[in-house]
Design brief:
Helices cover about 50% and strands about 20% of the residues. The strands form 3 sheets. Strands 2-1-3-4 form a 4-stranded parallel β-sheet, with helices on both faces. The protein has a 4-stranded parallel β-sheet with strand order 8-7-9-10. A two-stranded antiparallel ribbon has the order 5-6. It is globular. It has 10 helices and 10 strands. The protein has helices at about 1-20, 35-45, 70-75, 85-100, 140-155, 160-185, 200-205, 225-235, 250-260, 275-290, and strands at about 30-35, 50-55, 75-80, 105, 115-120, 125-130, 195, 210-215, 240-245, 265. α2 (about 35-45) crosses α5 (about 140-155) and α8 crosses α9 (about 250-260). By secondary structure, it is α/β, with parallel strands linked by helices. It starts with a helix and ends with a helix. It has a domain at about 185-290: 3-Layer(aba) Sandwich (Rossmann fold).
């Protein structure tokens, strides 16, 4: 069923690419993979562009398939901004580019210090496997995201360059404030571990000296044996809070929480309000360590 649906959307993509789109707006359209990227883009671009978000809030970017209206907006896009390694992107981006080859394309992953699920040395070089795509959640990664978007906008609209520089400076000031707040909250708890269903806070953990323990492994729910191991680990570490991303099932998190007397807290890293989302995550992590 998913394959058939994908083929139908791809057919619509080809029609949209040939038909010239919706014609609803005189603004240039920039398509982005997820809502937090819209936050950064609008903060720098102001009202100069319409931003088309491919994966709406509440949807899982690992499995999402685009709607026809998003396809139509895509066909009019002057640029596409991708994270780089979301499953949704790996499945669809090549087809998006086929439909609209005139789009400027950037991938944030090209300018990030990426985390990998595993790495091993072979001869005189290293092999890496399983890129963690969730770097946008960490303020320290957001500096580079903002810079990449600024440079793209200046290329798309050179006349707005000075305005984009000013807006970029304001955005960096906001990111810096959030970075400082997160460091102040979490530095006293460096070395502590937290438990989360989907491993979306790997970069956040790296950048503020924390350890992330994921319930889900390689996109799969834990086996009964793995679940028991997680319960034992939560008891050992006196975990009192288990985090779950808004888009995911809470069942396994609630099982562990019930066994160890923890609470389940919902976080929303895909929120279009990146600033509020990240501040909330930092505060919730700090509170989770206080509760032990």
């Amino acid at each position: 069923m998913r394959i058939a649906a994908g083929l139908l959307v791809f057919a619509a993509l080809m029609v949209a690419g040939c038909g010239g789109g919706t014609g609803k707006s005189n603004k240039g359209v920039i398509s982005v993979s997820i809502a937090p990227v819209k936050y950064f883009t609008e903060a720098i671009a102001g009202d100069d562009f319409e931003v088309n978000v491919m994966v709406p809030q509440g949807s899982d970017p690992h499995f999402y398939e685009p709607s026809l209206s998003q396809v139509q907006n895509l066909s009019n896009s002057v640029a596409y901004i991708s994270i780089g390694y979301l499953d949704f992107e790996l499945a669809w981006l090549y087809r998006f580019y086929e439909v609209n080859p005139s789009m400027e394309i950037i991938s944030f992953a090209n300018n990030q210090e990426l985390l990998y699920a595993s790495a091993w040395e072979h001869g005189d070089h290293w092999h890496y496997e399983g890129v963690d795509p969730h770097f946008w959640v960490s303020p320290k990664s957001a500096y580079r995201i903002a810079s990449d978007i600024k440079e793209l906008l200046k290329k798309l609209n050179p006349e707005g360059s000075s305005r984009y520089e000013e807006n970029y400076t304001r955005l960096v000031s906001t990111i810096s404030a959030i970075d400082r707040e997160a460091a102040e909250l979490l530095t006293p708890w460096a070395g502590r571990n937290f438990m989360i269903y989907h491993p979306v806070l790997g970069y956040f953990a790296r950048d503020y000296g924390l350890g992330q323990i994921a319930i889900e492994h390689e996109g799969k729910e834990p086996s009964p044996a793995a679940l028991k191991g997680l319960i034992d680990k939560a008891r050992e570490l006196q975990i009192r809070t288990i985090f779950v991303q808004q888009e995911f099932d809470r069942k396994n998190a609630e099982v562990i929480a019930g066994e160890v007397g923890a609470q389940v807290i919902i976080i929303d890293p895909l929120s279009p309000d990146w600033e509020a989302s990240v501040r909330g995550i930092a505060s919730a992590l700090e509170q989770s360590f206080r509760d032990r």
